[in-house]
Structure formats: C-alpha cells, structure tokens
Amino acid sequence: MKKITLILTLILFTMMLTAEWINIPENSKKNIFEHVRGENEAIEISFALNGFEMEEISEREEIFQKISYFNEGEFLEI
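-> structure tokens emitted (78 positions)
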C-alpha cells in the first residue's frame, strides 16, 4: 500500500513539474475578483488573473497548449 501511494505521489509531482507558470505582471497586485459596483438591477465585478500554468500536450501528432489555474473549478471564499 505504501508503495502505491509513493508511486502515485511521484507521478503527480512529475506531472506538476511539466507545467510552466506564466505570470501576468500587470495583474500581480490585483485581487482575482473585485466588486466594482452594485445596484438593484445588476452587480459589476472585475476579473484579473495573475497568471496560469501552461503545458504542451501531444495528441494525434499535433501539439496543443493546455492552460490551468490552481484550484480552478473549486469553490473558494474570496
């Protein structure tokens, strides 16, 4: 059981190392979501991504770029 856990951990760690972090400097100091204004009819928010991970994936002899962000799709308290 310990061997399987160790192997899975090593595989996941190796996969994490293949992605490259792409920084967006103009958004580095901003919050991801910011409340701009709110009225009875609508709420306006601003979205500023500070960066993302990019990795190359080969599929059927073509190369694609896959982008992802830590905890994407998760419900986070912002």
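Residues 2-18 form the longest helix (17 residues).
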